Predict the structure.
Amino acid sequence: MNEKILIIDDEENIVELIKFNLELNGYQTQCAYDGKTGISKIKTWNPDLVLLDIMLPGIDGITIIQLVRSDEKLKHIPIIMMTAKSQDSDKFIGFESGADDYVTKPFIVKELVYRIKAVLKRSVSNSTSGMGKKEIIEINNLTIDFSNYQILKNQKKLELTLKEYELIKYLAENADMVLTRDDILDKVWGYDFFGESRTLDVHIRNIRKKIGDENQGIIETVRGIGYKFNKN
């Protein structure tokens, strides 16, 4: 295993609890207790995953997510938000900024470790899925290029987060099929999702904005069931 996980949180007792349990599960860890140090360690240590508190002294967690996602060398790093706030708006702002998952404090350590394993598994799977093949899906004015791990609209590369790419890839692979919310959450998030399914709606909304699908001609909402990716 030995994946590197950076914990960014200003509550030392929580950091020590997480650090102990992650190292018990075979992960390497480093810690930062403020946003500025966190950003510095992301750049110098290049972790495989970041556990990030939203409320931090100095640079807040949302800003860190935005900085990471705008950096070509760092944008691939999965980020799991940690927040004491339970309001939807806090989670959705994080997802819109590019977070891959979230946990709400107080959390169960086993659940946190489970989420970390799932996010890392998906990250590794997607980084290697295009190796050795030249698979491309073209639908409408979109080109989904698995070999180069990118999506283009009218031959222009779209800036997508890891989770947005995984989601649109899964929908396109099952084009013209109605997919339930539970099925999408299970296949894209990679485990029995503990959070509310509105998380999926946020990601769909972000994707629609980026591909110019506000009228839902490509990604159709099937009320009470889920979503369908239309070929035509």
In short: Residues 130-134 have pLDDT under 50 and may be disordered. The two ends are 43 Å apart (CA to CA). The chain has two domains: 4-128, 136-229. Residues 4-128 form a domain with the Rossmann fold fold (CATH 3.40.50.2300).
